[in-house]
Amino acid sequence: MITAILMATAVWFAMGPKRAQLSAGTTTTTAPTWLKCAWVPAVLLMAVMVAGVSGGLWALLAILVAATVWKVGADHLVRRRCMRTEREVARACRALAGRLSVGEIPAVALEQVAHDTSILVPALQAQQVGADVSTALVGIAAKPGCGGLAPLAHAWKLAVTTGAPLSASANAVAQGTSRRARLSATLESELAGPRASGRLMGFLPAVGIVLGQSVGSGPTHFLTRTLAGQVCLVTAVALSCAGVLWSEAMANHVQKQALG
């Protein structure tokens, strides 16, 4: 019972608070990596002290599974937020380019568009207090999914400095951000299959155990009741988790390379 409580505590620490922050989309000051992981050896030590080596192995197994699920889920939420942000950036750039193309001055066009799309609110605030709008746009472009605003920042600065018209540059930026948003959505759709295959591979050892149990070989007794079996089980789970994370990393690398 105590070992189960310790494993549940490990799962909660690994998944609960962080996933809640990701779901809410909040930005908080993160602790150093070593401090965030300091609870892992503490939980393992407590499990060993309470339930012996066997309890420590079960706690380690729970931590491996929880960390893998957290990593995969967190990356998925980050990609979804980036895609939503890219679509909003594209919509804001199209609206700004449309207003500039009909003759509105940049300041008025920015004010009107920022009222409809929150992504440009920091730029509007900079304009209202007399700060540099291009600098504010560069700051927005540094956020995940907002990189398409960097060319708009340079075009805005050039227009302010030289008096060159902004309409043509805004149209080019709008087309570029729209293409990037479509490409991002296409890549996410195309890579969904490889991601699913990698996650499915992580469950194949469990399928093998079920098949072995169904033919009467009794692998569950060896894997759960003997120390050697528990070591084999933890090793197998660790390798399966590593395989899932490796396939996710490969998919993320391909997506990053394609988006530039």
Counting DSSP H or I runs of 4 or more residues, the number of helices is 12
SSE order in H/E notation? HHHHHHHHHHHH
Number of strands: 0
Main sheet characteristics: none
Based on secondary structure, the structural category is: mainly alpha
Mean pLDDT rating: 82
Strand coverage percent: under 5%
Unreliable spans are 10-29
Distance between the termini: 50 Å
User: What's the assembly state of these chains?
Assistant: single chain
Helix content: over 70%
What general form does the structure show? elongated
Radius of gyration: 25 Å
Written description of the protein model:
The chain starts with a helix and ends with a helix. It is elongated, with a radius of gyration of 25 Å. The chain has helices at 2-24, 33-36, 39-101, 106-116, 121-128, 133-141, 149-162, 167-190, 192-201, 204-214, 219-225, 227-259. 83% of the residues lie in helices and 0% in strands.
